[in-house]
Write a structure and sequence with these properties.
elongated, mainly alpha
Length: 192
């Protein structure tokens, strides 16, 4: 049904945008390396930024197998949950000026990121038919990029406005993405 498909697309679009917002820390490099309360070295920032790519390389096949075995909506819910737990660990580490929880958080965000991307691609192939699939993939790619572009503006603003709480605000957004994933799960069950 057209209304259901657009509702699904809206929920998945939000998830994709938030996933990329949590993924990309590059706009914060200047701020996090100059923070008077917890200045990260360039090496520490680079570890936080690059560890996600390493995790994506290592876990892509495991995550794909999880989605094949348990389903794309379960993978999507698990991915958004891991991203939120990762953001929580990142927030706690930053608030307590501890680097190790930040690294653990970024590892969890990386695993969740891959699950969300693979689950979303699988869901697109199920929900959209024939020529709509290409349009849907293009749309969701646009949402991913809009999440990254929004992060380029939003993350420095949040850091400057709420320097002690900006990771917690991103955590709140990632928690909303879990609710979107649960809604997609309910829609998917209803249509089966």
């Amino acid at each position: 049904k057209p209304k259901t498909i657009w509702f699904f697309a809206s929920l998945l679009s939000f998830i994709m945008a938030i996933t990329y917002l949590c993924y990309d820390l590059s706009p914060l490099k200047y701020y996090l390396t100059k923070d008077p309360n917890f200045p990260l070295t360039n090496f520490q920032f680079n570890v936080l930024y690059s560890i996600i790519g390493m995790v994506n390389c290592l876990f892509c096949f495991v995550n794909a197998t999880l989605i094949d075995v348990y389903g794309d909506t379960i993978g999507l819910m698990l991915g958004t949950t891991l991203i939120s737990i990762g953001q929580l660990s990142l927030s706690v580490g930053y608030s307590n000026t501890e680097f190790a929880p930040m690294v653990i958080g970024r590892v969890l965000v990386g695993i969740g990121f891959d699950l969300v991307i693979e689950g979303a691609n699988s869901l697109c192939n199920c929900w959209f038919k024939s020529f709509e699939v290409s349009f849907a993939h293009g749309w969701f790619t646009c949402c991913c990029l809009s999440g990254m572009m929004t992060g380029q503006i939003l993350l420095p603003y949040l850091y400057n406005t709420y320097p002690k709480h900006f990771f917690w605000i991103i955590l709140a957004l990632s928690l909303v993405s879990i609710l979107c994933a649960i809604s997609i799960f309910a829609l998917d069950l209803r249509l089966v």
